[in-house]
Design a protein that fits this description.
heterodimer; A: mainly beta; 0% helix; globular; B: mainly beta; seven-stranded mixed β-sheet; 52% strand
Amino acid sequence: LAKTTQPISMDSYEGQEVNITCSHNNIATNDYITWYQQFPSQGPRFIIQGYKTKVTNEVASLFIPADRKSSTLSLPRVSLSDTAVYYCLVVNQNTGGFKTIFGAGTRLFVKA
Amino acid sequence: KAGVTQTPRYLIKTRGQQVTLSCSPISGHRSVSWYQQTPGQGLQFLFEYFSETQRNKGNFPGRFSGRQFSNSRSEMNVSTLELGDSALYLCASSSDTGAPGNTIYFGEGSWLTVV
């Protein structure tokens, strides 16, 4: 099972771009990388998922280098409401189910 | 379509009691997994069910159990509650079609306080 490592916390200002990098050195061939956002007292919310190169949706971009040992979540022009904990998750669902292991997550604090 | 629904949202129990939490997955999703989240331990995987069978299990004592019904709804039970069981219990579902990259979607959780 791939273990993930992220920075414990990050600070930013409104309007800035925020990049959060996650390390997953022992990622397996069939593993996908998924990022979640969690606000206090709520369940994690899906942000974006990718396998390699770059994925973009309406809220974020995900950059994955060729070796896939890390990934970077990019949040363009953050606002105060983006203050939350962000989790990087590596999941393999090709082997009869999955056993997800969450890291500690990154606490992003956006200031005015 | 509706997301993952968990009930109850909040509950208070006394040490030694047992508790049952319920989860209704997203329509069409057959995989349901459960997690415990505490300030000290973060998000920890409890177990995963698929087609009424437990497929994977985390490192929790036998007091923590679960089951899944034929309609994919799931329940988890904690017996002989301890103060340390106070946590947010999260349920998540996935379509698990066998294709790689199935996304896991979470419910809002059930807050359990043991006094």
